[in-house]
Write a structure and sequence with these properties.
Oligomer: single chain
Shape: globular
CATH class: Alpha Beta
Radius of gyration: 17 Å
CATH topology: SMI1/KNR4-like
Strand order of the largest sheet: 1-2-3-4-5-6-7
Helix content: 40-55%
Structural class: alpha+beta
CATH superfamily: SMI1/KNR4-like
Strand content: 15-25%
CATH architecture: 3-Layer(aba) Sandwich
Distance between the termini: 45 Å
């Protein structure tokens, strides 16, 4: 399976599991809305915004879906290239002003609507690019690639669903 096919498969799986997860919170109205593939022009603009090489797995992702609303649970959005190019640095500025990161250190590509939970590319002083999953106070996790993050997120979401299913079963058994 190619990397692009693997990303496509993971994205669909996470989105499907997010729908299941949201049912436990009675958020059935939040369904994933997949964007069309990003244009070459927008991909080039995004590449120029990030000083350094954007990971190829991210380029694969946006060439499949240029943004996904309500992608992950509860309301994580994969930001569109249109949003990113029209709002350069706006999301990152909040974290820079809070002394969480240095200017230019991160490039946010996923953002939760209801709280300051983000997924970003982080460039180290040596130029290494990783993926970080973080909120206002803490780094939740760091990954070598976007594909690694998506695999982690898929597994983590599946575990959360299993816990809810076990809790529900336990309630029904009582």
């Amino acid at each position: 399976m190619s990397r692009k096919d693997e990303i496509s498969s993971l994205i669909k799986k996470i989105a499907e599991d997010a729908v299941i997860y949201r049912r436990y919170f009675e958020l059935d109205e939040l369904v994933p809305q997949f964007g069309k593939p990003a244009s070459k022009n927008n991909i080039d603009k995004i590449k120029s915004m990030f000083s350094g090489d954007l990971p190829e797995d991210y380029i694969d992702l946006i060439s499949l879906h240029d943004g996904i609303k309500n992608f992950d649970a509860p309301d994580m959005e994969i930001l569109s290239t249109d949003f990113l190019t029209k709002n350069p640095g706006v999301l990152e500025e909040v974290f820079v002003n809070a002394n969480r990161f240095d200017k230019g250190e991160i490039f946010i590509v996923f953002q939760e609507a209801s709280d300051p939970h983000s997924v970003a590319f982080r460039r180290s002083g040596e130029g290494r690019v990783t993926v970080i999953d973080f909120d206002a106070q803490d780094d939740i996790a760091e990954f070598d690639t976007l594909l690694d993050y998506l695999n982690f997120r898929s597994d983590d979401l599946r575990k959360a669903i299993s816990r809810f299913e076990a809790d529900r079963k336990g309630l029904l058994d009582d």
